[in-house]
Batch of 3 targets.
Target 1
Amino acid sequence: MPVNSISSSTISTILQNTVTRLQSQLTTTSSESSTGLLADIGLTLGANAGQDVAMHAQMADLAALTASNAVVTAQLGSASDALTSLSSTTQTMLEQIIQNQSETAGSNGAQALQQNAAAALSTFSSLMNTSSGGVYVFGGLNSGVAPIAQYAQTPPSAAQKAVDAAFQSTFGFPVTSASVSTISGAAMTSFLNTQFAGLFSGANWTSNWSSASDTATSNRIGVNQTVTASISANQSAFQDTAQALTMISEFGGLNLSWDATAALMTSAQKVMTSANNGLIQASATVGTMQNQVTQANSAISLQQNVLTSQIGANESVNSYDVASQVSALTTQLQTAYSLTAQIAKLSLVKFL
């Protein structure tokens, strides 16, 4: 009797352990069957698990780059659109300046040109303050602040005060004085090329016009690739644009002599032509940046495909083999359940 009791208990314990082991194996194998992936990568791959973890880390880095590049792409797209609009505005103004170069002082044509320039100057500021995702795309590193102040405002802007002060300092009277008609063409040319032009570069530009940083932003767009991904409002193309538009906006409607008006239009045409050429170059620069990001995204996509394939080869299971294992484990578990039930029914009375 003791021997029979010990034997039944031992067999029962063995069967219970077997059931527990089979249940665990069946749970793992069923999971692999439903997901198609290894349930325990570390246990299955062993020493090769570290390589698999490293590939997952690379995939995470590539995913982060893809998300970051999407932001950069949006910002460059906004910059490109703004430059296209600004180029259109300046080209229209240049055509109007050329058409009005033969206009006499105080003509309706000059007055209309002055009004158009004032509107274009406002548009210039608005376009230069283009933002994408809360970032001012022409702000350089100082991308959290609108880079260009509006020129015409109440009270007068710092830029407008500087222009008025430079005019009065040079000629001895304000722009509102009737004496503006006495300004010669040579004097107007000298003023526009020196005192006035100096207001749109260096410290005068950053003090009165721009809050942008000279340094453009850089972005990591590939695993081993970091590029400049913005342009600053402090570039000469934008300074020339502001200078030409301000020139016509401020002085185009004055009662200047024919000589001074001709000098004004000649200077405006020269500076606006330079601005147009600079804006074309700026658009090309942004286009190059966009192309770099596009190429980087293509390279990232290829890398992701390779890693996905390698990770899949490491972690995927053979669906046929796993299905067979599930079936075999299920049969073994059912057999173990049956034996356990039979052992539980054993008694001394039945034995005798």
Target 2
Amino acid sequence: MSSENPIRHISDTALWVARYRAMESERSDALFYDPFARDLAGERGEQIAGELSRFGMHSWPIVVRTQVIDELILHAIEADGYDTVLNLAAGLDTRPYRLTMPATLRWVEVDMPEVIEHKSRILKDATCFCRLERYALDLRDVEARRDMLQKVGAAATRMLVVTEGLLLYLDEEQVKDLAWDLYRQPAAKRWLTDLASPRLLKYLHRVRQQLPPGTDFRFAPADHVDFFLSRSWHATAFHSTWDDAKRLNRREVRLGWLWDLLSWVIPGARAQNRKMSGIAVLERP
């Protein structure tokens, strides 16, 4: 095993996730097809995924997360009339290129400058299904973030916010500040975010040594979705990764059937499994 950390910068996690999307796309029973993922991930993405597999990090939770968020985004656009999607820390996500959406939909991506530059270069000749905008900025820069949110929100009627793979790297105060900044935009009606439990956080600490200095897994609120009530967001649904992985036939857990059995026998075990990770659907009152 290499002595060098496979992840040199937090933005490298985007290469890692893209590699998992490429792997799923190449299955005969793929849940989704991302024709750009392999090129976006490159050799570095393959290396990162290979190294982290030694620590028990596998593709199925990311694949499930991707598919569930795909479903929720399409439902929000088709059934609920959202005209704008704001994807914060978008990474190398390619939904504007692989999901069939209205040409009038406004899709806004925000990420670090190096991620935006890499993505724009690889996808320069790809066809986008909607109106795409990109903002290159560090979301930790509060003033720049608020300025961007004001500009994006002012031109939206019903805005869906997506934070996929972001909150885990923030501390509680940073998440509260972000939640409040989003709430101050009247057009931001719904927020989709992945959410980890303290139990999952303990599991993830096994790969902590593979992260660059100053980067860590942080956000896993003990009060789960109720955490967001302090900033006026309430959960209308929580899509458990454990349940959705079974529905989508992607639960690649050794003795997973035994975990299911124990969850019905041990008091509270089923609730713990369901809350370990998933997608929270947050709405303003």
Target 3
Amino acid sequence: MLLALLLTWILEGKPRYTTMQDGQTVPYISDVGADKLKPLFIAMGAFVVVTLDISFLAERWLRHTGKLFRNTSTFQKVLSILSIISAIVGAAGLILLSIFDTKHHPRMHNVFLALFIGGYIFSAVFICWEYQRLGVHFREHSILRTSFYVKLVFILLEVALAIAFGVLNRKKMWNNAAIVEWVIALVYTFYVLSFFMDFIPAATPAGHHAGGPQIEEAMSEAEDGGRAGSGQYLTTGHGRYYENGAANGHNNGYTNGYGNMYANTQRQPPPRRF
């Protein structure tokens, strides 16, 4: 979508749209999207954010079923749910800002723009936090650590760029602000693409990825009283083995072995003397 909007503006000879400010030569994304490409702007924007939100839901389901690294605490699940809610808010912001364009609804457009940027930044914060906690429990799997750092870089970049965008707008440096807006959108695109790597473990054979259900069940057992389970195992397992196996074997050995040998010896007649 970004490429289509940018190429349209360039191929048309870099026209100056009616929504652009005095002295502005670089259009905002919304300036191009509010013109004749508005249907494309709405359709592609909705497609991108709906697809991303579906990937959030799919990741939650795969993590719940154990095809991705399972959450090891309720807190991680809460973070995952908060990231989904924030992503839905951000998606609504992008769809609404494309509908309420800057030409006809400038004030509402700016409100929805802030909702879009804020929603996805908070979503990234929550999911980044979740991945950090997962990485603590699954230290041997570098893909979680990589994903965490990718999302952390996105958060830092987008927050810095959003602040710069607001400052440049306030100072009426329209061209610089427009360039920053295009960069924000480009960084967001790479953030969306980064989620492909999060689904890699789900594509590996069962049991060959991040621990699967086995490690998670072991962790849950340890957290919920695994020591008691181990004690019970020792009592009911090894204890029963030693009581029934060793005791019976030892006793039966003496009874059936040495006892029978002794009895048979007693029954033998005395040797003849010649």
